[in-house]
Write a structure and sequence with these properties.
Blueprint: E1 20-24, E2 27-32, E3 42-47, H1 56-67, E4 72-75, H2 95-99, H3 104-120, E5 125-131, H4 133-143, E6 149-153, H5 162-170, E7 175-182, H6 188-198, E8 207-216, H7 219-222, H8 228-248
Parallel strand pairs: 3-4, 3-5, 5-6, 6-7, 7-8
Antiparallel strand pairs: 1-2, 2-4
């Protein structure tokens, strides 16, 4: 299991989050709710990167999905131990040591608890949008057909081609992959393999891959918006996600 240097690099985005923090089934969550009428039976599960729901970038993205008519639940599946924003761009942070304490046995149970609680409240359709670390868990939820639509942006920790083939054979969730030019975690070879497995109509539920030149891993949530190509990638990946959820959720 490994990550790349871009997994903890990035820029904090400016803005005032509009959602609220709540506890669901004992798990801290950031809830972004549309201000207009919206389908109460649908929720987008926001699976953040290693900086968790505390990073303003994640909250602002969740708010943006809510502005497009989706209730969003961003979950602290890192159990109160997300990386602090200070760790961003830090060459001395022991990232692999941190990762060893955030394996599936620690991070999957909070997701399942929140999903069960939301089902009890009447939610029947779940989309998931996962960034970096969250891409791994978006795939896992899709494997179990817990979610009905999946979006991953610069996913990490995927075994290629194994996880792509498992997704194809087990999941019924339409899949959007937001990929980029420089991504050690989901490089060009993995992108090509995904297209080979899912593309040309082979995956009946639906598949699309977006590609953003001039962007590096992390662009969709921690990109430097002063760079025009990165800004275009961040905005383009969000637009693609919204359109995909509208079409498939």
């Amino acid at each position: 299991m490994s990550f790349c240097k871009h997994c903890i690099q990035g820029v904090r985005h400016e803005g005032e989050p509009q959602g609220k923090l709540e506890t669901i089934a004992g798990v801290a969550c950031y809830i972004a709710t549309p201000t207009v009428d919206y389908p109460k039976d649908k929720v987008i599960l926001f699976l953040p990167d290693v900086f968790g729901i505390e990073l303003s970038n994640a909250k602002l993205l969740a708010d943006d999905f809510a502005k497009n008519g989706f209730k969003v639940v961003a979950m602290d599946y890192l159990n109160g131990d997300a990386l602090a924003a200070d760790a961003m761009n830090s060459p001395s942070f022991d990232f692999m040591g941190w990762l060893s304490k955030h394996l599936a046995e620690q991070t999957r149970p909070p997701l399942d608890k929140v999903i069960a609680a939301l089902k009890a409240e009447g939610v029947t359709k779940f989309g998931a949008t996962g960034y970096c670390f969250g891409g791994r868990y978006t795939f896992d939820l899709a494997f179990d057909n817990v979610i009905q639509c999946a979006v991953v942006s610069h996913p990490s920790l995927l075994k290629v081609p194994d996880d792509l083939e498992t997704y194809f054979s087990k999941s019924q969730a339409p899949l959007l992959i937001n990929s980029c030019e420089v991504d050690q975690m989901f490089p060009a070879a993995a992108q090509t393999k995904a297209d080979e497995i899912f593309g040309d109509g082979k995956f009946a539920p639906g598949y699309k891959r977006e590609y953003f030149p001039g962007c590096t891993h992390g662009f969709a949530v921690r990109g430097d918006l002063s760079d025009p190509l990165v800004k275009a990638g961040k905005e383009g990946s969000f637009k693609a996600a919204v359109e995909f959820f509208i079409a498939h959720l």
